[in-house]
Write a structure and sequence with these properties.
The protein contains 2 helices and 51 strands. By secondary structure, the chain is mainly β.
């Protein structure tokens, strides 16, 4: 019998059984398809040694007029501007209080803990506060007090605790002097969604002390998510369903952002919004789901925009282009996404197109599709003019009209996903390979641990395991970057060949595995005696790169791999394949067999070709 090539269509076909997916790839991790063939993905290396406070959920790249390459970073607790590898905290201040006389009381002797009294402080657990003007109190020095602390306990609406570096206190002594001030950063947010009204639901101490919870049964407390855009070299950004802020690059990275409404010349600027952006074509700052002029309450269907080329003037007049409109379908805006010709706006039940039409209306809108869902605010990405997103049970693409995107892994993804943590889902691109990637939590995970990719070049799907809480594929950076949930660090991707997360690089465990194939209709046994490898190790820096080829036999679709009712050949056969391996002799007898390529060594790159196997019908012993 002639040699049989092992060649399958590109992509993974996972929504059928292995037996029904005959002649296709079935499982994989950390591989991609190029020119129809699987290969290992590139590695990742640490971008910076700096870390954030809280999980990173937002990344935005922009360049200043003096050509500083900035990276805006939003975490569950703070907001940063990265420059030259340094993370600079620009989190806005919520308020600054002048405390009363001797507002500090030391805790247990030597503990360094202090209790701070500030009437109506408005702080929540884990908030950041910076003291100034305090004097040495009970052995805790002024320098140990007059710095930034994270609140460790809310005692009441008028008091809270922090832990200083002081260890010389005797305990229970009041002091601090009469000139202590406390500068509070905006309240921190959640980094994990919590459902219902039980313990942990909502940020601790949110609301009036001792009051009833305002969380409805079954409701999911919203994660701390950010949106933002650069306005020239400056930055406008906001907390989802929270404040709107402005950072002026001319002040440098040592200056905090301010509320947009506090900027010089501000007029009717929104103070709360679902999302903010700067429209690419016409340079309006737009707030989605914001408060109306003269109001403080949020209208989650209201869209307002500033005067053209003016981020702070939001009062409509006959002499400017500021204005507003309100969507008429749904109850809240979920996401707005700027494309080349229009802004797409999702509510929970419809998709709208918003276009610049010029004076006097400035923007107009129309419905593109009803009953179109978006699973999470950041589950949208665009590539080569098409916009892709993940819905509640399907994938979609917009290329001038909305279409469902057929997927060969749909049931696999949506059948093992944690919808409680759906707000963490985010999309990105790796444009050099034509990939749109969605990161999500598997059913048993509370943090991102999986990804699924649609390859627009190959029109195929594949998936894998990787923990990235934010992603950015920017043309002004050399590599795609992703934020790691384990160490709160950022990594360059498609750089090198290894996993660079630890103290030293480690190998990436990558594999691709086929469905079962057989001779005839599975009514005959097959015997495989030899395998002829065809694999390229181009790009490897290991002097002797190698992968494993595995043949995984079984006799029935319901059997475990490696089991057989014949006595001569039992078990999966593994073949070590190196760069100049010509052939390998094996003995595999079964009705059906799956083929797998895997590697876990360092400094290895590989691309599979079309290996062949010597396979023939065989009798049964």
């Amino acid at each position: 019998m002639p040699l049989q090539k092992i060649v399958f269509p590109p992509g993974v076909f996972r929504d059928q059984t292995r037996f029904a997916s005959d002649g296709r790839w079935f499982d994989c991790d950390k591989i991609r398809f190029r020119s129809g063939l699987p290969q290992k993905i590139g590695g990742w290396e640490r971008y910076s040694n700096d870390t954030t406070d809280g999980q990173i959920r937002f990344l935005l790249n922009f360049i200043s007029l003096d050509e500083n390459n900035y990276l805006a970073i939003g975490s569950s607790e703070r907001f940063y501007i990265e420059e030259g590898g340094s993370f600079n905290n620009i989190t806005p201040l919520r308020k600054t209080s002048s405390l009363g006389a001797n507002p500090i009381t030391t805790g247990d002797a030597g503990s360094g803990e202090i209790t701070v009294t500030d009437s109506g402080h408005g702080a929540v657990f884990n908030d950041f506060v910076t003291f100034a003007g305090a004097t040495t109190t009970d052995g805790v020095t002024a320098a140990q007090i007059n710095t930034t602390h994270q609140i460790t306990e809310i005692v009441s609406v008028n008091a809270y605790k922090v832990v200083t570096a002081g260890s010389a206190s005797s305990g229970s002594t009041a002091g601090g002097g009469g000139s202590v001030t406390a500068a509070y950063e905006i309240n921190v947010g959640l980094d994990t969604a919590v459902i219902g009204q039980g313990f942990g639901a909502g940020t601790y101490s949110r609301g009036t002390w001792g009051s009833a919870a305002t969380i409805s049964a079954g409701a999911v407390n919203q994660l701390r998510l950010w949106s933002g855009d650069n306005f020239g070299e400056d930055l406008v950004f906001n907390v989802r369903n929270g404040g709107v802020y402005y950072w002026d690059a001319s002040g440098g990275t040592g200056v905090r952002a301010d509320a947009l409404s506090d900027e010089s010349g501000a007029s009717d600027a929104p103070t709360i919004a679902v999302q903010v952006m700067v429209s690419n074509n016409d340079r309006h700052v737009i707030a989605f789901g914001c408060n109306d002029r003269g109001a403080t309450a949020q209208d989650k269907l209201l869209i307002r925009w500033s005067d053209q080329e003016n981020a702070v003037d939001w009062t409509p007049t006959t002499a400017n282009t500021a204005g507003d409109l309100r969507l008429n379908s749904g109850s809240e805006i979920v996401k707005a996404y700027d494309t080349r010709q229009e802004i797409l706006v999702w509510t929970e039940e419809a998709l709208f197109s918003m276009r610049f039409v010029g004076p006097p209306f400035t923007f107009g809108h129309n419905v593109l599709s009803r009953n179109t869902t978006l699973i999470a605010p950041n589950a949208v990405a665009s590539l080569d003019g098409a916009v892709y997103w993940m819905g509640l049970r399907d994938f979609f693409v917009y290329t001038g009209r909305v279409q469902e995107l057929p997927s060969t892994v749909r049931d696999y993804v949506f059948g093992d996903i944690n919808l409680l943590q759906a707000e963490k889902i985010h999309a990105g691109t790796i444009k050099d390979f034509g990939e749109i990637v969605w990161f999500y939590c598997s059913a048993d995970a509370t943090e991102i641990d999986r990804y699924v990719i649609y390859n627009s070049f190959e029109n195929c799907w594949y998936f894998g395991t990787l923990s990235r809480t934010a992603w950015l594929d920017s043309s002004s950076r050399d590599y795609p970057i992703g934020a790691n949930s384990a160490d709160y660090k950022i990594y360059n991707h498609e750089l090198g060949l290894n996993d660079g997360e630890g103290t030293s690089p480690t190998g990436i465990s990558a594999y691709v595995e086929s469905s079962d194939f057989e001779i005839g209709e599975g009514d005959r046994f097959q015997f495989i005696g030899r395998i002829y490898p065809d694999i390229s190790f181009f790009g490897s820096t290991d002097p002797a790169p190698a992968v494993n080829f595995l043949l995984k036999p079984r006799n029935f679709p319901g059997s475990a791999f490696g089991t057989s009712d014949t006595s001569e050949v039992v078990g999966t056969k593994m073949v070590d394949v190196q760069e100049f391996t010509e052939q390998s002799f094996v003995r595999v007898r079964s009705r059906q067999v799956a083929f797998r390529v895997e590697s876990s060594g360092t400094n290895i790159a590989w691309k599979l070709g079309t290996p062949r196997i010597d396979i023939r019908p065989d009798g049964r012993k």
